[in-house]
Design brief:
This protein is mostly helical. It has two domains: 103 residues, no CATH class; 133 residues, Outer Surface Protein A, domain 3, CATH 3.90.930. 54% of the residues lie in helices and 6% in strands. Helix 4 crosses helix 5, helix 4 packs antiparallel against helix 7 and helix 6 packs antiparallel against helix 7. It starts with a helix and ends in a 9-residue tail after the last helix.
């Protein structure tokens, strides 16, 4: 069969009009069967998005979420056989989805949901442990470039939504009529030992971790952060990172 046939079939099951495909159908009943197949494909993609963005679904309700997800599917159909990672870019879609304009914080909720699933599916990696750091000389410690754990996702949000999102994830009461004032919030989502965790970071700690994630050494990251946040305590931030397990130990002996 020709490339045109396969392209037309792909357009049809992904919800696009496909006149070339329609012309190839020999019997009227074939169009109905193709429509059923197309609807099944759409439903599978929508349910995959609902599973990947549970808090977005909980806040909006299924009747709102389903058409929003279907609109995303039409623009960005799955490109792989598995649907576990489907939905990259959904947060941007939510931000531009006209009916969601009345929920300006919804895109940040979607970013948190996406960070959770990315952390959950991220590759395993060595965690930087206090005992490893204690064995280093002061000079070696200053030049250490741990970076963040492979599962870590550092988010800069426009709304203080983390605590509400976290309550939804833990199955607590659902809030749909939120009254929030826009306020920047930095959040880290990571999976140190099998369980996904999240924490709100103060601006200095967020800057420090972002610098480490860019490959800066501890001393350089500390100096960079102190220029912007003179009250920042590098030792306390490094200690918190070690205890929580969101630094990589890949470069340590």
């Amino acid at each position: 069969m020709s490339r045109q046939f396969y392209d037309g079939f792909a357009d049809l099951v992904n919800g696009a009009a496909s006149e070339p495909m329609a012309l190839r159908l020999e019997r009227p009943g074939q169009a109905g069967r193709l429509a059923v197949y197309r609807n099944n494909v759409a439903s599978a993609a929508i349910e995959a998005l609902r599973a990947a963005y549970p808090v977005v679904n909980a806040v909006t309700g299924s009747r709102f979420f389903s058409p929003m997800a279907k609109a995303f599917w039409r623009r960005c159909p799955p490109r792989t056989r598995g649907l576990s990672g489907y939905g990259d870019g959904f947060a941007n879609h939510v931000a531009g989805y006209q009916p969601a304009r009345m929920l300006p914080y919804l895109a940040d909720i979607a970013r948190l949901d996406r960070a959770w699933i990315e952390a959950h599916h991220a590759a395993d990696g060595h965690v930087c442990r206090p005992a490893q750091v204690a064995a280093l000389s002061p000079a070696s410690l200053a030049e250490l470039t741990p970076g963040l754990h492979p599962s870590a996702r550092l988010l800069d949000l426009s709304w203080p939504i983390h605590d509400i999102w976290q309550r939804h994830r833990s199955g607590q009461s659902i809030e749909r009529d939120l009254r929030l004032a826009a306020e920047a919030q930095s959040v880290l989502v990571w999976r140190p030992y099998g369980d996904v965790r999240s924490v709100v970071l103060d601006p200095g700690s967020a800057c420090f971790l972002a610098s480490l994630n860019e490959g800066k050494a501890l001393a350089s990251a500390s100096e960079h952060t102190l220029v912007r946040y003179p009250d920042f305590d590098p030792a306390a931030a490094f200690g918190a990172a070690l205890s929580a397990g969101y630094l990589s130990g890949a470069l340590l002996p």
